[in-house]
Amino acid sequence: MTVQTQMQTAIASAQSVEASLAQFALETENQQAQQMFQQLAQQQKNIVTQLEGRYQQVIKEEPQFNQGQ
How many Cα neighbours within 13 Å face the side chain of 22? Predict the structure, then answer.
């Protein structure tokens, strides 16, 4: 598995976690739990953004990874 593939997989997994947390926030009726899930979803969104930024940086720095795009 290439670094590019590993990063794409990590980003997809992180996005899935973010979506799950957002869904949990929508489905719960407990206000405290809802706020917790919303905060966790926001934190996860920040993680996704950082991963995507690093991925773009790797693509720029390592031209051989750009072949798969």
Answer: 11
